Amino acid sequence: MKDILFRYMSRYTTLSAEEQQAIAGDIRVEQFGRGTILLRQGEKTTSCYFVLKGCVRQHAVDEAGRDITSNFYTEEQTIALFNEHRPDRASEHALTCLEDCVLVVGELAIEQDMYGKHAQLETLTRRMMEANFGQMQEEFAAFIAATPEERYRSMLRRRPGLADRVPQHQLASYLGMTPESLSRIKKRVREGER
């Protein structure tokens, strides 16, 4: 599993194999079963995660009581919720494992100590966050301008296999449509591929 982490570190830093091993020795890797709630909506965020294996859903219950999916995190993706700007630092989202997961768990309380111990770790984190933020900006702009069918097709291109890993009603919520609309779109796309 750690080979995924090493590949990721190599993409964003010039860490030697020895430095990568040292960082890997200092991080916590945990297994979480399907259905595990990593963070409840309204709780204070104390950890960030890197997905080595599995799928984690980011979601929230809105004022009308609807459970809205805002993201799915899969292999080689970072989960970091930023709520330091909130007076109570409570998370607006929940994080739930949709599959059995293997995650690197980063404790925000010891983040600075880790940066002091491993100088390039801060560079890795910054570059990773810049890449994630840039990708999110592009995806959000495309999402706003796209029709529901274009959103579905884009998701199939960007995240192949995701539709087979998550329940349809959650995927529909993520794409901003009803499950019935998603069913019709999936049927049209399948028929168009024949």
Describe this structure in words.
By secondary structure, this protein is α+β, with helices and mostly antiparallel strands. The chain is built from eight helices and eight strands. The strands form two sheets. A four-stranded antiparallel beta sheet has the order 1-8-3-6. A hairpin with a 5-residue loop joins β4 and β5. The chain is globular and about 55 Å long. The relative contact order is 0.16. The model has no long low-confidence stretch (mean pLDDT 88).
Entry keywords:
4-stranded antiparallel beta sheet; activator; 194 residues; cNMP-bd_dom; cNMP-bd_dom_sf; 8 helices; alpha+beta; Jelly Rolls; CRP-like cAMP-binding protein
User: How would the global form be characterised?
Assistant: globular
Number-wise, the strands total 8
Count helical runs. 8
As a whole number of angstroms, the C-alpha radius of gyration is 18 Å
Sequence stretches where pLDDT stays below 50 over 5 or more residues: none
Kindly name the structural category: alpha+beta
In the CATH classification, which architecture of the domain at 2-110 applies? Answer: Sandwich
Query: Class of the domain at 2-110 in CATH?
Result: Mainly Beta
The secondary-structure element order is HHEEEEEEEEHHHHHH
Largest sheet properties:
4 strands, antiparallel
Helix content: 40-55%
User: Numbering strands along the chain, what is their spatial order in the largest sheet?
Assistant: 1-8-3-6
